[in-house]
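Give me the fold.
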Amino acid sequence: MRRRWVGSLVILAVSLAACTGGTTGSYSEAPDRPPGNGPPVPSGPTGAELTEDLKWIATPVGELLDVAKVRKIGAVGDIRAAWVLADVLRFIQVGPQAVSLIETLGELTQQELDPFSPTAWVDVTNQLLLWDVPPPDDLRSIKAELYLQQERHWAHFFDDVDADVDWRAVTWGGVPPDLRPLDDQNRCACIPALDHPAVTDAGGGEWLADRRVIFGVVVNGEARAYPRPIMEVHEMVNDTLGGREIAIPYCTLCGSAQAFFVDEGESRLVMRTSGLLQRSNKIMFDLQSSSYFDTFAGTAISGPLQGLTLTEISVVSSSWGDWKAEHPNTTIVAQDGGIGRAYGDDPLNGRDLSGPIFPVGYIDPRLGAPEQVLGVFLDNQAYAFPVVETVAVLESGGKPTVGGISVELSGNGLIAFDAEGEQLQTHQAFWFAWSQFNPRTLLWAPDDPAADE
């Protein structure tokens, strides 16, 4: 077999014949991220006067925005100020104030922006992230001034001077936090978690077509299916399975369902959706301690629990028909969730299938942004297996393996094992999301027979 090139990216071939009876595959290393090529960034601090002006325009937002102050900030010519202007624009997307912000942002970033675009803030923030523009002085407290006008509960997050957060990447997802106590299923303006949902046996799940996607979880031999349409509405489930308390966040923006044990401390954590995002991934929080979590890592990034990493459980994305065939004793969340609610087949109408709709910055070009991958770690190294290609190899009798990891079918979803046959923790996600949070991922691909000599 010979070494192959894709553009300037070297593909490192790894023979899998010994493990798979003839199947071969390869992995690619992450390419170097291209250097930022934006406008020059001034050296030194942004200075007291500019910092005060930025705080001024952050409080208050709306019709009282001081347009003259916005113009003054733009005249300074410090691109770091664009972080705050883009944040303010997130809350004022149309009208004369928005036009002023967009025109000033165009001057600072040297970009042509549509002054009437309601998504200009996304375009600008993406560019700032792509260029890795440093933040202005005291960005955390400036964001606090802005965001706490929308929701006071976020003070637990923004006022934490020790939070392990890149404040540039934090933005608002458009909804308030879910502050309801555990098992309170009253309606709210938030994205409402579903706590301890009613379930039925597999026979009671006839309402769900066999082809529909579920997220399958097994704890201590007890299997449960969480239908994707229900998860798209609630985005968070707190449940008891296999005698353990678990939380299952589903980030629709990332196509990522995860599961964590939440009963390993002195008290059970109650996980909720905060309404905040970082790089298009939801930030969840524990209602009891007001500690906020990096959902992808399961690690508390602020609050009393900061530094705590939750134990993650594998989630299998499978069709309902294949899941119940493999797990005949599975339970499934009841059709109405136990709360008398109706769920459509596709509540979001495929909203997130064309790529990220919130700022993420750089996207690893090895796969398309919305392509689903199975993500797994072994020995602190991240690996990803493109779902469509991996399933195709498995269904043809092969067994994708790389770095001591082998992948198998579960239902018609995917699970992974190490060389000793121990199952590894995995979950699926859009490629842009997995690679954002695991930038040094080794990406598996089946061999191309045409490349062999």
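The radius of gyration is 23 Å.
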